[in-house]
Each structure stands twice: as structure tokens, then as C-alpha cells.
Amino acid sequence: MAEQFPGGVLDLLDAAGDRTVFEHGDRTVSGAQLLEAVRRVTNGLRKHGVGPGDGVALLLGVGPEAFAAVVAAHAVGARVVGVRPGLTGRQREHLLADVAFKVTDRAAGPAGDRPGGDLVLDDLLSAPDDGVRPRVTARPEDVARLIHTSGSTGVPKACAQTYAAMTAAWALRPDAWPPAVRELASRLDRFLVFGTLASQVMMEYGLLALAAGGTLVTADPPAFPDALVRHRATASVITVARLTRLVASQRASPVDLGTLRALMVSGSPVTPGRLREAAEVLGPVVFHGYGQTETGMISMATPEDEPGSLGVPPVELEVRDDSGRPVPPGTDGELFVRTPAQSSGYWQEPGLTAEVFTDGWVRTRDLGHLDAEGRLWLTGRARDVIIVNANVHYAGPVERLLAAHPSVAEAYVVAVPDDSTGEAVHAFVVPAAGHVPSLGELRTLVAAELGEASAPTRLTLIDEVPLTPAGKPDKRRLAAGA
């Protein structure tokens, strides 16, 4: 039986030895050096009493020491919570409410003034190195990490992934790589990482790159195409909006992207037209991934796949009708999936868990179909969401906030294309008698409660909302006129 995660990561670093696995600024870090950092942080965490089941929040970036801290926290069996930038104060407080320990890049004050659970990464790295491979004390049934959604419902929902699920994930198991992942892995020689390892996508592609013998290269700032050129990157993650800007930049003022072999688009769909344009300008480098926080990767299209297709899913996938029955190829329905590393549910949310996680399947709330060759095509959403910078934001909480404003009688929001963020929030508002709602006021209201990404970027005043034949608000007609 395979050792629990992160045993496979420790094995990779040990096997890498003197080979460079991380480039960070002017520094190169070998597998042996990164493994030493993992040993030190592991020993430091254990010295502070961190063990299986303890909640540990990591407020860190993407450098090698941050990577070592992630691995070490898993080695001691902690429940790891990554805290990404850009959260509101309320959202951040919610993420930190259920953790006993916080690991930060720098001290907030003198050591004597800090609570016992506030740990500084440099202090953990100063722990003795005993030269012994860290003992993995993770238990299969324990929650390994909480991966948070965007928080557009007010506070982020946390998807709970167990150690058994992380161990079953295919990133560290080349023998289990599906064909599309195997093709991608062959292009990850120099994988550009940026932002934070709290990003599920960034961490998992990073592990895949290491398993493929590649090097992680940090970019700060992650400006494209400059970062790709400066770091001679062969691959990176990219949002739809950033891909659109990169293509436009290359058309207007091309630079040499000769090292680039893979851009992994995830988080929101790419239209066939955008994919064709990207292939024309950048070459055959775009991989289009489809997955969810709850499931991890569901399917991936390579540059050879027909634009619009998401390739043949390497996981169990059923397309079901409204009664829950599977439908034949070519027929649209809601997608239900089972993946090796899917979450076990939402942390401390039994009602929501029962709604989405059913009999071992995950209800994606996305609509699509499989064609006769088994390729997946998305055609819509069964949930009312807007995907901004690859993060899902629910329409309902935004509408309720807007409708509570004194100048608003009714409010409806829809997704509209946006070159900067992929999609944006467009608000349609029926004004309250004697009032003229202001976009600035409404944006401020939503941003303060739900975050900037949920705030409407456009406002249209309407006399009344159009209705469907069933008497419900017809958002398709609203979106068509946006």
C-alpha cells in the first residue's frame, strides 16, 4: 500500500538530489536542499505540537520555503488551510476561525507578543535538521486540506479533501496519467508559478511538473508575456482574460515565445473562436482544463482537440436528465462525476454536502453532453453563477444585497463577457419610486460585503424584468440585451 501523501513528494525530492527543482529570483534550489527545508519545517511544527488533525493556516506565497511549509504541514498530518490574497476582512476571519496555528512569511510583532499559535516560517526553518526523512503521520480518513471557493455567498465554502484522496490523485503517479496529462507533463520543463500555493490549480500543476522532472520557476510580477520571456518558461497557468490579452499583445507587438510549449487554461470556458485565434498567434500550446474545486480535474483538451471540446474525460462521468437518469450520447443534461481525488464534502456544511455529493458522485451543476467518440462538450450551467478571473461567484447573494439598497426595488445580475476578467457582473435594476440608483454606490455596497469581484461593473435600469412562460425572471433575455 502506498504511503500517505505527501510521501510521494518526499520521494521525488529525494530522487532529484542535486538537480534544480526551484528557481526563485537569483536562487536555484536543488531537490536535496528543498528536502532539507521540509525536514526543518516539519521538525519545527512538531516542536510546537502540531500533529494529525490540527488546523494550520498558511499565509504564504510561492517560493521554495512556502512549498516546503505546505509539504511539512501535510507530513505532520495537519488540516491545511491556504489563505489567498484579496479576501475581505470578514472572509479572512472566517477562514482563520477554525485553525489552531497560523504560519506567516514574517512576524507581526516581537516573539513574546505573539499568540502561541502564530508561527513564522523563518523560525520554523531554523529548527535542527536531523537528516532523517520526515515521518509521515497523516491518517487516510483525516482532512488533508480545505480548498475554499470564491466566497461570493458571503463567506467561502470549504471543500474537504482527505489524505486518502490526495494520495489517490494522479499528479504524482506517472503510471496513472491519462493521455492528455501525459502530453502536458512532457512540456513542463520550466513551469512558471505565481500568486500563492493556496491555489489548488497552481499546486497541483506544480506537483505534476516535479513528477515530470521539471523545475518550478517563480514569477513576480506575473506579467505576460514579459515573465514568460524573462524566465524562459515552457509552461504556465493562464486565465481566459489573460490569454485574450496575451494574444492581443502578440498581435500588436510580438516577442519571442520560442520556449513556450503549454498554457493551461482553467476556471472558465474558452470559446472555440478564442482557441482558434490563440493557436494561430501562439501555436499549438493551449491546454483547456475542466474541473471544479470539489472534484479536481475532470477532463482536459490538448492542442490537437477540436476547439470547444474538452477531450475524453478520464474519470467516471454521467450526463443525467432532470429525473436523474443517464441520457444517451449527444443529449444534453447535467454532469455528475467521480474522480480519484474528489472532496468528501463541504467542511461543517452537512446540508450543502448532501445537495452536491450524492452516492459517491459529485453534482457539477454544469450542463453538457458526450459525443459519439466520448468527447465532452459543455453547453451551459444549471447554477446561476458568474465566473470572474476563474473564480465562481453566485448571483443570488449579489441580487439580495442590491435589492436591500434603498434606491432599488428589484435586482437581477447576469454574466457578461469581459476582456479583463473573463466574465463580469452586469446588474439590471428596477429603481425604487423616486430614486435613481448609482453604479458607484451599488459597487461599494457589494464589494464591502462580498469582495470586489462580485461587484457589478455595469448597470442597466429597467422598468420591469422580462418573464419566462413559467412566470420566472428571464435572465437569458436580460443577458442577450446586455
Summarize the structure.
The chain has 482 residues and is of the alpha/beta class.
What does this structure look like?
Helix content is 29%, strand content 27%. The mean pLDDT is 91. α2 crosses α3, α10 packs across α11 and α13 packs across α14. It contains 15 helices and 25 strands. It is of the alpha/beta class and 482 residues long. It folds into three domains: 162 residues, ANL, N-terminal domain (Rossmann fold), CATH 3.40.50; 208 residues, ANL, N-terminal domain (Rossmann fold), CATH 3.40.50.12780; 96 residues, ANL, C-terminal domain (GMP Synthetase, Chain A, domain 3, 2-Layer Sandwich). The longest helix is centred in the N-terminal third of the chain and has 17 residues. The protein has an eight-stranded mixed β-sheet. Strands 6-5-3-4-7-8-17 form a seven-stranded mixed β-sheet.
CATH topology of the largest domain: Rossmann fold
* Whole-angstrom Rg: 23 Å
Distance between the termini: 55 Å
Number of strands: 25
Largest sheet: 8 strands, mixed
Structural class by sheet pairing and helices: alpha/beta
Strand order of the largest sheet: 2-1-10-9-11-12-13-14
CATH architectural name of the largest domain: 3-Layer(aba) Sandwich
Strand content: 25-35%
- Helix count, DSSP H or I runs of 4 or more residues: 15
Total number of distinct structural domains = 3
CATH superfamily of the largest domain: ANL, N-terminal domain
Shape: globular
| Residue-averaged pLDDT | 91
Poorly predicted spans: none
Keywords: Ligase
Organism: Streptomyces roseiscleroticus
InterPro entries: AMP-bd_C, AMP-bd_C_sf, AMP-binding_CS, AMP-dep_synth/lig_dom, ANL_N_sf, ATP-dep_AMP-bd_enzyme
Pfam family, one: AMP-binding
